[in-house]
Write a structure and sequence with these properties.
30% helix, 22% strand, 2 domains, Dihydrodipicolinate Reductase, domain 2, 342 residues, homotetramer
Chain lengths: 342, 342, 342, 342
């Protein structure tokens, strides 16, 4: 079987590099196009990008010539977007109009009611909105998005709790510096320090989960009815977002019932290549999960939960640039392919 | 005026050193006795203790001979206790029985209904329990305690909010490693990592604030009626606990009203030497308070608050070994002296 | 082919865990015995050891019962010693006398003239000393040791420079905290700090390289004739020792000649399972090698060198608990098996 | 006595802020002019600068209006230059030509033979070059510079060793991130990592000490005759450069003789306000100096040395943005005033 041709928009940045890492040996996708700003276009990728990952840059990709972020220059069936939000707003629509499938990690289009905001384990039925999206917009292609990194971690953990009737959620996040991109957080700002603020983050975290856990009514995706109140903090951790979660539920389940729900959670996805064996890993040690020890569980795609206490309170942890960014988009594209949409 | 003679119990440890730092040039107290375990007793302090602070060890104190933690060996009017909780349980009563005033940072006696758990800015009227304590126990001396470091920070911020009718509090703490003592947190545990657990901490944080903000009914201290739900985390920060706080209040004040209450908060203490000019400092920048920049405000005795948002949510930060430990005990003793109890 | 039975002495500690990680799927060795102190003996390994690695504890090993560090309790052909130096001094001889092959990471026996101090890529001919060792000591088994972690990194880089006539070496090391064991470096000592001292380290670093690069004269191993002057420092890095090296050589080679010697270095080992494809990786970027990016090169077994400048100066970096400890012992045992000595 | 009017060029950056901190309560100088780029000019200082220091921004300075870096806009007798090197090259000459005394922390003019490169404790006689400089260049004002931060630390320690006949120096530096400015080192680059390269640093470190310790021959400053070989590394430390030093000397002094020379070193400066009581502090503990504990010695102006061993080897540590930057320039200006040159 011929592989599906894949491009990366914003290929030189931190998330772009994670896309390349995740796609370079992919069983279904083949990287055929690396697009970046005009400053990089025309150069070999290994000259345009300063590789920042602990794995080596895939050799053959280093020799590819970077193209402009322009539908006419990109040769691909699906493009993965690691663009900054303002650029994504304009560019992703151009690609969708030109017939591309756009799997986007950008925030720009996440909250539009006809654009799915996907976590495959949570809301695969939202893919039904794609047809509506194409009708509404007259596009040959379409856009699917994945949530903000902080949203993904705890929303995945909320999914199996929906049956208890979620009423409200409090979340305090302790977020890794890689979430801000390579130049995002100066070392003088964060060494031995906490920054109790991440621009725009709380707004995303307080609205995305309800859309993800909502329903598509045939016309639009309607958000679920619960509140989220977030306090987001940057901490001196390289990778891995840790979240302290409180969930108030109508049925007031016990910690044991919540643990049981986490353990039994089976998203029934089939067998997507990037999917972790279990999306939620329950740690019963008193002091887990921890980013250093748990972020790579399920090759960075599993969410670890622990310390389930009355309240209901628990800790939720996941790899922010894998499960929370590039891996999320790739899993979305795998689902699209499985469903015959790609 | 002759100075009041002061001893430190547990003088060689991390909090003991902070006591010495805080007392070495004190206008009212004079360090006359440094007590530690039998391993240290008999040695010169500079040989017994490995000084870990950024300030230099006060010279004259280095030459003092360490004595045993025994009322018969300690020459002092007031003793400051930096003992581990289990030892404090036994020893502090011995000192109180022997006529000493004990200003304790240990957890052992904090929740006893006839022993004041003091934050001078919050509950100076609880000192009335001292007489009852002496009656109950037949002691010539007495014990006053200060709260857990994490408790102190946000409880101080709750005091001016009591008028709005506090119903419940959620707190996620990001706590500095110095809170665990010098050997408490191995670097391999915390470098670039978060540990979402601190043994015994959440239990303290969830019960102490209500006692502090409660009332003395003539017989015992009765806790205030609100709930606290805590999630405590260790972070790679040297000094300074950062806390994300949510407070639900009957009167549902706006963020502006909460800010106003913080700004206007005046504990009316008079002029205690260790007291900060303002106990609560309101930071209006979007990304403050931060431990590195704000922990030394008011010589480590002020609490900084910021990011007051609807919810009500805010960030609270203070120096855990100064305001949260040694400085808290010293301020208590200053209040005792001001009230003629020492 | 039946696998060789392998035991680990000191199996619960930090290096012991790295041994288990390195041996759990080994093509030649099979873990048959996990030995530790009497505190752990009798317990299941998963109860005796607190697993600290980012990889999961191998499941079947977690169920093994820990035995005492006693030849009569250990069932193995080769034992890997992660014992503390004082205990190793006594115990390793007992095991060798009882017929075991001892592959030791401990310092106790490293400098004995009839005990090989091995880096397989440097001095495989020193294995000839084993027969002499057995004669001298009347042992059925024998001991081979691997060097101190800091020694291994730069000694490997010196090997291909020996032809230029090494006269003297200066080394300033920046060593990761994992080298001191899990409890070895308190976070309060090293967060945002440098400790310019590691007990006993400089002495090892200044004598071991000459033995490794020396010759076996039929009776004893005679150290090579050059001097090493070391300054060893602890830095807030989890894994990976970085070393600034100056080498004065008789032939005064140019940086290009040194680079060429590094690139061409082929130890001719054959194909040992733990051996990296290239023992020395030359990085030509201006700012490499770095511990975070390069420590896992060659699955942690390759040494990365870079910034080769006149002087001759260069930077040398390797994974201290893999290439510098457990991996070094395992590679030694693989060489023993290849040479028919195991 | 009226104070000397002082301006800061580049007042908003990291070193500029240290200048303001050091000058705001100065007994001899009065801050009369804050100059910065056109982006800041015209704004109030508190709006133009994001204050990054742990101390509070001096209130009255926050209200000053920032001016352009232009002699016609700056009202001052002496200007302190925290300009980037390329801008300094052009601008400092303009100020000197316009009659200002320029005390510069920039690298641009350091190595010019008629411009003193000053450490007051080392080479106050080089001030004689000022007259020559004015003659050569036809300036009414003049420029004095201070060395690179890494240079200052160990050069101060070399001064009392000059009598032993210094032949060569090896230095491996472990440099704090603040040396690169607030945005200089991304946290993703340095958290738990070492970067073994700092652009342009080794070149400065290898040439500046010889000029500082050289002599003014009436025409030009002639560098002393010894070699320096440097390896410079960035470490995850906020403030304080640690240096491992080897010094080869003709007279081959013992460690005790070197220690004695350090202890007896008395620069005979008189009593400059910013001068530390002792420029060199000898630490006899086995593991000192350390940046966290020792960087603030002498209010950040003293250099701490320790671990003096045969070789001669020792450790040298100082505060890079105080003694190594702003404090160095201020001390230079104090010396100028003392000598009647300002």
């Amino acid at each position: 079987m011929a592989k599906i041709k894949a491009g990366v928009l914003g290929a030189t940045g931190a998330v772009g590099q994670r896309f390349i890492e995740g796609l370079s040996d992919h069983p279904w996708f083949e990287l055929t196009s690396l697009a970046a700003s005009s400053r990089s276009a025309g150069k070999k990728y290994c000259d345009a990008a300063r590789w920042r990952l602990e794995t080596e840059m895939p050799k053959d990709l280093g020799d590819m010539t970077v193209v402009n972020v322009d539908p006419s220059e990109v040769d691909a069936d699906v493009v993965f977007s690691a663009l900054p939000s303002d650029e994504a707003q304009r560019v992703e629509a151009e690609f969708a109009a030109a017939g591309f499938v756009v799997a986007s990690n950008a925030a720009a289009n996440r909250m539009k009611p006809d654009i799915p905001l996907m976590i495959p384990e949570c809301n695969k039925e939202h893919l039904d909105a794609i047809k509506k999206q194409q009708e509404n917009r007259g596009w040959d292609g379409y856009i699917v998005t994945n949530p903000n990194c902080t949203t993904i971690m705890f929303t995945l953990s909320l999914k199996p709790l929906m049956k208890f009737g979620i009423e409200s959620v409090h979340i305090a996040s302790m977020q890794a510096v890689s979430g801000a991109g390579y130049e995002g957080v100066p070392s003088m700002a964060i060494l031995g320090n906490i920054i109790p603020y991440i621009g725009g983050e709380e707004e995303k975290v307080e609205t995305e989960p309800q859309k993800i856990l909502g329903t598509f009514d045939g016309e639009k995706i309607v958000s679920a009815d619960f509140s989220v109140s977030a306090s987001c903090h940057r901490v001196p951790v390289m990778d891995g977002h840790t979240e302290a979660i409180w969930v108030t539920m109508r049925d007031d389940p016990s910690p044991a019932e919540v643990r049981e729900a986490f353990l039994k959670f089976d998203p029934g996805l089939g067998d997507l290549p990037t999917e972790p064996k279990k999306p939620l890993i329950v740690r019963d040690e008193p002091d887990r999960p921890q980013p250093r020890l748990d972020r790579n569980a399920g090759r960075g795609m599993a969410i670890s939960v622990g310390r389930i206490r009355s309240g209901i309170r628990y800790i939720c942890m996941g790899h922010n640039t894998v499960r929370g960014a590039a891996g999320a988009s790739i899993l979305n594209a795998e689902l699209l392919h499985q469903k015959g949409l790609l």
